């Protein structure tokens, strides 16, 4: 088993290899995620509304 000091030095070496995103990249990808999540929520809302309306009409036609 390695010593804790060696482990920490290896962790620091690995962290140094990480390509951290720029502030602009973080803001851009955050905006893209928010837009895509909004579009997906609108899409699924419309699909749900269509299924609900279709089932209501079908059941109204069959039941009444």
UniProtKB/TrEMBL annotation:
<dbReference type="InterPro" id="IPR001901">
    <property type="entry name" value="Translocase_SecE/Sec61-g"/>
</dbReference>
<comment type="subunit">
    <text>Component of the Sec protein translocase complex. Heterotrimer consisting of SecY, SecE and SecG subunits. The heterotrimers can form oligomers, although 1 heterotrimer is thought to be able to translocate proteins. Interacts with the ribosome. Interacts with SecDF, and other proteins may be involved. Interacts with SecA.</text>
</comment>
<comment type="similarity">
    <text>Belongs to the SecE/SEC61-gamma family.</text>
</comment>
<protein>
    <recommendedName>
        <fullName>Protein translocase subunit SecE</fullName>
    </recommendedName>
</protein>
<keyword id="KW-1133">Transmembrane helix</keyword>
<keyword id="KW-0472">Membrane</keyword>
<keyword id="KW-0811">Translocation</keyword>
<feature type="transmembrane region" description="Helical">
    <location>
        <begin position="26"/>
        <end position="47"/>
    </location>
</feature>
<keyword id="KW-0812">Transmembrane</keyword>
<dbReference type="Pfam" id="PF00584">
    <property type="entry name" value="SecE"/>
</dbReference>
<dbReference type="InterPro" id="IPR005807">
    <property type="entry name" value="SecE_bac"/>
</dbReference>
<comment type="function">
    <text>Essential subunit of the Sec protein translocation channel SecYEG. Clamps together the 2 halves of SecY. May contact the channel plug during translocation.</text>
</comment>
<keyword id="KW-1003">Cell membrane</keyword>
<dbReference type="InterPro" id="IPR038379">
    <property type="entry name" value="SecE_sf"/>
</dbReference>
<keyword id="KW-0813">Transport</keyword>
<keyword id="KW-0653">Protein transport</keyword>
